[in-house]
Amino acid sequence: MTDDPALYFRAHVFCCTNEREPGHPRGCCREKGADELRDYMKKKATGLGLGKQVRINNAGCLDRCELGPCLVIYPEGVWYTFRDKADIDEILQTHLVEGARVERLMLQPQDKKPEDIAARQG
């Protein structure tokens, strides 16, 4: 059996930038500012020196629109919701620089609506 090659990037961040028609009952990440926040995340990651280690990518629908904007970080498979640049800063610093988790922003597999997250946050 052949060993896997070395990782080209140590992490991939997939940011949903999906767009649905206006008024769709599930909403979409794009209407919640996902494009601007993804662009900010790319620039901030580069500024933190993560540019050669971490790849920030667009993603189509990640199927968690009600909870968005959202992103998932691999290889861990950790999902986050975020609302603003401060949330992005915290995800970058805590998860990608320090290797910890931003528990208040993490999405759990059972989360289906924003109230699920708010209930966990107290």
Task: Give the proportion of residues in helices.
Answer: 25-40%
| Total discrete domains | 1
Largest sheet entry: 5 strands, mixed
The CATH homologous superfamily: Glutaredoxin
The CATH architecture is: 3-Layer(aba) Sandwich
Task: State the distance separating the first and last CA atoms.
Answer: 49 Å
The number of distinct β-strands equals 5
Rg, nearest Å: 15 Å
Taking pLDDT < 50 over at least 5 consecutive residues as the criterion, the unreliable ranges are none
> What is the strand content?
15-25%
Q: Reading side by side through the largest sheet, how are the strands ordered? A: 2-1-3-4-5
Per DSSP, the total helix count is 3
The CATH topology name reads Glutaredoxin
Tell the overall outline: globular
Taken in chain order, the helices and strands follow as EHEEEHEH
What is the CATH C-level name? Answer: Alpha Beta
Helix/sheet category: alpha+beta
The overall pLDDT average reads 92
Give the secondary structure arrangement, pairings included:
Blueprint lengths: L10 E6 L17 H14 L6 E6 L10 E5 L3 E4 L3 H13 L8 E2 L6 H8 L1
Parallel strand pairs: 1-2
Antiparallel strand pairs: 1-3, 3-4, 4-5
